[in-house]
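Order emerges. As here.
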Amino acid sequence: METFASALGSLPMTRAGGLFIAVMGVGVALGGAFPRGRKALLAFGAAFAIIALIVVGPHIQVANPSRQQVWFLFGSIALEVVLVRGAFALYKTDGERKLMLAILLAVGVHFVPMAGAFGPLCAALAIVCMGNAAIGLCLSRSAPLNALWTADGIVKILFGAMMMLLR
């Protein structure tokens, strides 16, 4: 029976994807700690994640991905764009807290199909991110946005690091 770690060759983008997710997580976590700069920190996180992916990603990717894995990656990114736009349309008048949590939920959902490119840790990340956002949106409407936002970033850092460390 093949373990996930030994199957990494069949998921060659896992480590590079983990790098992107971890660096993005730093930007998200800092946005929770410094909420006035949240949007700028999110943009810087995305920029640094893209740069890291371009500069470091090819050196930690173990092989070329299959066409199907590339489709899962780009399909999940397209889904994220649609879901985030939908979150803005639905929650733009409901205040920053609901809007930001809806965005976190949308990002969590997009990790589900992304697991087709990055593997089961990405699916687990999806569940944890969606759960965190759901806590704020549905279960505990008094939970502070900054705490939920920071937790989301820390989760992304941890899961991204685990994905990068797979051998």
Observations:
- Residues 9-165 form one domain.
